[in-house]
């Protein structure tokens, strides 16, 4: 088995560089095929690395003097901060020095950098950001959550195709069910984008289109690939966080109301925590930005080591399954028809 | 105090006519100013009414032989079923025989009937459907959740104005905070609709615009009036149901895993149920369809008596506070500027 070389943006994210580098070390331990290029301020990276005992033949530290902050305008940041950890990671993927990059830094800068530096696969109109979201039946791919807020029907069709390839090959879901987010099940429902996309997806071969799904059915796990524009995708993702967070807080508050409930809480605490874990975003790795010439994986800004590790491990399957070749072939076939 | 005359669609909804009529009876008991015109198949309505002891001087049964089913195409249903309970209710509002109507029937038919039969207040471009949704800090108005899926910026501006009037007068929120649903806080974020609407709302006097809010902040209660197009509004509403429902199911499952957790469950059951109640949709009354010449209130399809009752009671404040006059004046002022 060949090595998968991952550029790790050690300076991006709320918990950088500590948790990022810790996650990298854990990935090295979990899988012998991982080689990491740890990109960031050399002295910071080395200081963290000194804390661990690890296989030094599979780590290279790449110095990058600048850091892109969360609030910076993405386009400006990518253009001007050439010596930032993120931009350096992007160029390493572009030049084939790495198979993939993982960053917990600015989403905007990652999207812009992916487009501008790494570049699109021929035939891909808009590269979508596609996180795995928890459902009652396991994970589903929410595609798009990225920057394509004013998407066209043909963009959404490509999202459906790329998402199917991802779920089939990376998540091993056979014949993944593709659902179009809409306000009702009937085909005449929805806004213009949804109505036109419905028609295109209905006539498309090679995907398992199950029709419209209502947002309520997403957490229920009705579809494996949840197709929508990035505005709606963002609302879905944030509603998961918002409703989940508030409900959890309310439950916790309830458990503390009296001595009786406090005793009850002690009895269920461990199990409840386990349950809640299965419904949290960070149980999965990061979100791939699909349709680029290399793999760019964005993990949550508040990622801890475990999520960083999962994101790195995810890159191995992505490379082994030749996802980009498959996307390239799939979209090329469509163009010929 | 004068009477508020409400037309109650006794045949609409999953639990009609039983729960609808029960809710009507409860409203009569709770407030002496309520007069109900109970519209539906006479024999069905009378059979239900016989179960209760109530003030017969405040009830009139209006016979309607037809029923609009949930699956029917709304436009066709409204046009052809002239003797349906819903269409009869609509005409009674239009002709001023009633102050308001309450229906748990088809949302589509209610929206269409509201537009076509009751008609818009002059100056209102698109009447939005605006349910109250639960937040950590109480209720917020989600406006629009109706049929305006391809809305224009000027529509959303009117939603902000009408929503502010509603929250201030009906829910007694002083200077209600208006938030525009977007994918980030910064004003340059979002799709074209959001960006243009942001500019218009920023320059609008007479509302308390707090800027963009992310979907995560909706359940947290950051805004009192949550402005969006109906597609996004539908996604928000359904995500509440979906995430809430799945999490609750998971928590319940956890409580049943062992003898220990079952004992724990017994100790927290009552309190947990109370907590969950505060985060359910049906704690509030129905959703008003704002901007019409009369009041049309749509309650959930699965409404039980309590929600029907709350919806009817809501009509009293709506009438007393002269909401329609206020909307009419507000939007007229805007036109003159």
From TrEMBL, chains A, B:
Biological pathway: Lipid metabolism; phospholipid metabolism
EC number: 2.3.1.274
Gene Ontology MF: a single term: phosphate:acyl-[acyl carrier protein] acyltransferase activity
EC class name: transferase
Catalytic activity, as annotated: a fatty acyl-[ACP] + phosphate = an acyl phosphate + holo-[ACP]
Subcellular location: Cytoplasm
Acyltransferase listed as a keyword: yes
Keyword set, alphabetical order: Acyltransferase, Cytoplasm, Lipid biosynthesis, Lipid metabolism, Phospholipid biosynthesis, Phospholipid metabolism, Transferase
Source domain of life: Bacteria
Subunit record text: Homodimer. Probably interacts with PlsY.
Known function: Catalyzes the reversible formation of acyl-phosphate (acyl-PO(4)) from acyl-[acyl-carrier-protein] (acyl-ACP). This enzyme utilizes acyl-ACP as fatty acyl donor, but not acyl-CoA.
Similarity remark: Belongs to the PlsX family.
Record's protein name: Phosphate acyltransferase
Protein's gene: plsX
């Amino acid at each position: 088995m060949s090595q998968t070389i991952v550029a790790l943006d050690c300076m991006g994210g709320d918990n950088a560089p500590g948790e990022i580098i810790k996650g990298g070390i854990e990935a090295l331990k979990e899988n012998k095929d991982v080689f990491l290029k740890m990109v960031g301020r050399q002295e910071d990276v080395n200081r963290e690395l000194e804390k661990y005992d690890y296989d030094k033949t599979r780590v290279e530290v790449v110095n990058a003097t600048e850091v892109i902050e969360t609030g910076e305008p993405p386009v400006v940041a990518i253009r001007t901060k050439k010596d930032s950890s993120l931009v350096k990671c992007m160029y390493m993927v572009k030049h084939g020095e790495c198979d993939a990059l993982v960053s917990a830094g600015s989403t905007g800068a990652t999207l812009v950098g992916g487009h501008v530096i790494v570049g699109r696969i021929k035939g891909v109109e808009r590269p979508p950001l596609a996180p795995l979201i928890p459902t009652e039946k396991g994970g589903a791919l929410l595609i798009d959550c990225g920057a394509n807020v004013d998407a066209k029907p043909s963009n959404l069709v490509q999202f459906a195709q790329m998402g199917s390839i991802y779920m089939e090959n990376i998540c091993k879901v056979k014949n993944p069910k593709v659902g179009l987010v809409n306000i009702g099940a009937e085909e005449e429902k929805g806004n213009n984008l949804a109505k036109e996309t419905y028609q295109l997806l209905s006539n498309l071969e090679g995907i398992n289109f199950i029709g419209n799904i209502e947002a309520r059915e997403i957490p229920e796990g009705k579809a494996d690939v949840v197709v929508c524009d990035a505005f709606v995708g963002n609302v879905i993702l944030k509603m998961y966080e918002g409703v989940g967070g508030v409900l959890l807080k309310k439950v916790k508050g309830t458990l503390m109301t009296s001595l009786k409930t406090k005793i009850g809480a002690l009895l269920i605490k461990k199990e409840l925590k386990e349950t809640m874990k299965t419904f949290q975003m960070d149980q999965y790795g990061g979100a791939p930005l699909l349709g680029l010439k290399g793999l760019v994986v964005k993990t949550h800004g508040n990622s801890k080591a475990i999520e960083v590790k999962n994101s790195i491990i995810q890159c191995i399957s992505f490379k082994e399954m030749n996802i980009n070749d498959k996307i390239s072939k799939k979209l090329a076939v469509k163009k010929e028809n």
